[in-house]
Specification:
Number of strands: 2
Largest sheet: 2 strands, antiparallel
Number of helices: 3
Radius of gyration: 36 Å
Strand content: under 5%
Helix content: 55-70%
Number of domains: 2
Strand order of the largest sheet: 1-2
Length: 125
């Protein structure tokens, strides 16, 4: 008997609630249709006046500039990192970084330089 009342109660709720849901959805659809018609005529008028129909506003333009600047910064950082890594040779046999002879002749020493010219003995004696 309790199952019957649960099912009957849900049926009554659906019977009462469905018309309200239907009215709400129809009003939303009508609102969207009116907005569609207004923007269509607005864009037609702007087109024949020779103005821009773009949806971008000032905030969108500023955001695009910020994103472009960040992208450029990332690219320059990657380029700088690759040029720094290209100047050292990774010796995987004994896990040290060896500087090429061309850089040694130019007297340029990066911060992570290990002098291997004396067989790895870097004693200060």
């Amino acid at each position: 008997m309790i199952e019957f009342f649960k099912t009957f109660g849900k049926g009554i709720l659906y019977f009462i609630g469905f018309p309200f849901l239907l009215v709400f959805l129809c009003l939303c659809g009508l609102y969207l249709f009116v907005i569609f018609i207004i923007t269509t005529f607005k864009n037609i008028i702007l087109f024949f006046k020779g103005k821009n129909i773009s949806l971008k506003d000032d905030l969108d333009i500023k955001a695009m500039e910020i994103l472009k600047n960040k992208r450029k910064e990332r690219l320059t950082n990657v380029i700088n990192q690759t040029t720094q890594q290209a100047n050292t040779i990774n010796n995987t046999y004994n896990n040290i970084n060896v500087i090429p002879k061309e850089l040694l002749e130019k007297k340029e020493e990066p911060k992570d330089y290990i002098d291997m010219s004396n067989g790895g003995n870097n004693d200060l004696n």
